[in-house]
């Protein structure tokens, strides 16, 4: 488990919910306001009247940070204004499982309007104005639970959010919000960690022997691998050792490649920290590095011992990285009748609470395609390449890192859909649904407009490097409905630039 901080506006039920939740989880409960009163020897009202709100907020911040530095786990309820300080909110987001109890502020006011112990509630107009002032801070808290319903229903919803989900085949995968806090209790002989994750979260992990890899796709090369081999040798890693990869798809690819080749293979596990790696690249056993000629041209197929997924890592990602992961979710939505497409269509907002719900079904969808074709020999796993033919070409021609992998794949899916529609395989209505979802998620074709200026021969030569190439043709996966795909065998490569440019010019 981990530290859980429950916040929300006055009257949202933080203390009541927190007490019951702590009993269910069998960990201590603390109320920050009570702890402040205990330290000061006076009530919250008295502190406000005698010393002012600024004084109170300083004590509140100091005690909050003190609690978050404690070694043990607990549930902590904090006052409605505790999160309006940037420093306090950053500590909560970084060192706890942050939960917001939200709802209609008028409902909250009715619950507490007769209480005399709250310094900032009267009259109702002032109460609502204060709520509006704090609303922007509340939106930054990722886990949101509506607390207008009964306390026990609120607690049950929180417990459901926090429950562990486990997948055992073909590799063991555990998915749980806050699970990364438990990694400090595990001992790995060596860790390979992304530089961005190291900077933000290093104190969360008990790192001893480790190698920090520069953030980004450019580090995924044989030069980086050679440096890690040397670091493993210096750390005296042997065949019984286990290494951990902490980071996004670049790190899981490198860790898997290193783990499956160093000393002819040692145990390795993953903690994927980007949405893309949590829904796609950390699974299926494909490990590899890039050459100057293209992506993943050198690699192995080898499964990790275990993969630990904590969706909370998503909250520290820039929007571009979240979009990158959603590109693969978009792919899984179209691959089969799994319900992901409809759920995305119906989602009111693509926020953390929505996104984290798609991690488990996305993994299950990928496993359905790979578990009987782990080594990519039965022509089943090939369907996971939906969007990747044009996608990999976009990345290569525009320069690795110019567009994210997920953005490239999502736009590649629109190209494949356009090809399918123009060849009579996909109904116009389904094509429009796919395109509308592409736009709803937040994708745009603007970053790909440079492709229109590149000559066809350059695009063709890049496409001919694709692993799915067959002489002058290419096997390309295309949708035949909004949630079903087929394989076009030996599709003429020389016709692809026209389709790609028409898609970018006329569609996206």
From TrEMBL:
Names of required cofactors: Co(2+); Mg(2+); NAD(+)
Alphabetical list of InterPro entries matching this protein: Dehydroquinate_synthase, DHQS/DOIS_N, DHQS_C, P-loop_NTPase, Shikimate/glucono_kinase, Shikimate_kinase/TSH1, Shikimate_kinase_CS
Uppermost EC category: transferase
PROSITE patterns: SHIKIMATE_KINASE (PS01128)
GO biological process, one term: chorismate biosynthetic process
Ranges where the 3-dehydroquinate synthase N-terminal domain occurs: 212-322
Catalysed reactions listed for this entry: shikimate + ATP = 3-phosphoshikimate + ADP + H(+)
Binding locations of substrate: 33, 57, 80, 134
Keyword Kinase attributed: yes
Protein localization: Cytoplasm
Keywords: Amino-acid biosynthesis, Aromatic amino acid biosynthesis, ATP-binding, Cytoplasm, Kinase, Magnesium, Metal-binding, NAD, Nucleotide-binding, Transferase
GO MF assignments: 3-dehydroquinate synthase activity; ATP binding; magnesium ion binding; shikimate kinase activity
Gene Ontology CC terms, in alphabetical order: cytoplasm
UniProt EC number: 2.7.1.71
Main localization category: cytoplasm
Pathway stated in the Swiss-Prot or TrEMBL entry: Metabolic intermediate biosynthesis; chorismate biosynthesis; chorismate from D-erythrose 4-phosphate and phosphoenolpyruvate: step 5/7
Cofactor-binding details, from the entry: Binds 1 Mg(2+) ion per subunit.
Positions contributing to ATP binding: 11-16, 118
Domain 3-dehydroquinate synthase C-terminal: 325-468
Classification via SUPFAM superfamilies: Dehydroquinate synthase-like, P-loop containing nucleoside triphosphate hydrolases
Binding positions for Mg(2+) per the UniProt entry: 15
Entry function: Catalyzes the specific phosphorylation of the 3-hydroxyl group of shikimic acid using ATP as a cosubstrate.
Family as reported in the entry's similarity comment: Belongs to the shikimate kinase family.
Oligomeric and partner information: Monomer.
Protein name: Shikimate kinase
Species assigned in the record: Caldisericum exile
Gene responsible for this protein: aroK
């Amino acid at each position: 488990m981990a530290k859980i901080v429950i916040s929300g506006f006055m009257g949202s039920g933080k203390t009541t919910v927190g007490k019951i939740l702590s009993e269910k989880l069998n960990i201590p409960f603390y109320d920050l306001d009570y702890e402040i009163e205990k330290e000061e020897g006076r009530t919250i009202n008295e502190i406000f009247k005698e010393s002012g709100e600024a004084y109170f907020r300083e004590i509140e911040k100091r005690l909050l940070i003190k609690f978050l530095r404690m070694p043990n786990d607990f549930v902590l309820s904090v006052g409605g204004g505790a999160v309006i300080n940037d420093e306090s909110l950053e500590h909560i987001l970084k060192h706890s499982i942050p939960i917001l109890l939200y709802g209609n502020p008028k409902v909250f006011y009715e619950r507490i309007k007769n209480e005399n112990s709250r310094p900032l509630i009267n009259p109702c107009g002032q109460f609502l104005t204060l709520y509006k002032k704090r609303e922007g801070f509340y939106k930054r808290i990722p886990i949101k639970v509506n607390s207008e319903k009964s306390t026990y229903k609120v607690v049950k919803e929180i417990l459901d959010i926090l429950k562990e989900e486990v997948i055992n085949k073909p590799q063991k995968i555990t998915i749980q919000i806050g699970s990364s806090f438990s990694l400090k209790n595990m001992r790995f002989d060596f860790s390979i960690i992304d530089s961005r994750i190291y900077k933000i979260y290093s104190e969360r992990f008990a790192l001893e022997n480790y190698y920090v890899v520069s953030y980004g796709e450019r580090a995924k090369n044989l030069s980086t691998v050679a440096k890690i081999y040397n670091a493993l040798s210096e750390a005296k890693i042997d065949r019984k050792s286990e290494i951990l990869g902490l980071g996004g798809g670049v790190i899981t690819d490198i860790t898997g490649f290193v783990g499956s080749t160093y000393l002819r293979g040692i145990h390795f596990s993953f903690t994927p920290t980007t949405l893309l790696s949590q829904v796609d690249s950390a699974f299926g056993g494909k490990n590899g590095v890039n050459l100057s000629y293209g992506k993943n041209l050198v690699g192995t197929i080898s499964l990790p011992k275990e993969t630990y997924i904590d969706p909370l890592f998503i909250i520290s990602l820039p929007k571009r990285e979240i979009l990158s992961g959603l590109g693969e979710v978009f792919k899984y939505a179209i691959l089969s009748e799994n319900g992901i497409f409809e759920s995305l269509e119906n989602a009111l907002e693509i926020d953390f609470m929505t996104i984290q719900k798609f991690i488990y079904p996305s993994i299950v969808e990928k496993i359905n395609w790979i578990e009987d074709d782990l080594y990519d020999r039965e022509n089943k796993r090939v369907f996971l390449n939906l969007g990747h033919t044009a996608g990999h070409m976009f990345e290569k021609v525009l320069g690795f890192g110019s567009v994210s992998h997920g953005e490239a794949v999502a736009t590649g899916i629109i190209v494949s859909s356009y090809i399918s529609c123009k060849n009579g395989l996909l109904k116009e209505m389904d094509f429009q649904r796919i395109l509308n979802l592409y736009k709803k998620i937040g994708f745009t074709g603007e970053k790909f407009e440079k492709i229109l200026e590149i000559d066809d021969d350059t695009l063709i030569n890049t496409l001919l490097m694709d692993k799915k190439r067959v002489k002058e043709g290419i096997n390309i996966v295309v949708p035949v409905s909004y949630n079903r795909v087929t394989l076009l065998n030996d599709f003429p490569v020389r016709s692809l630039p026209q389709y790609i440019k028409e898609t970018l010019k006329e569609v996206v």
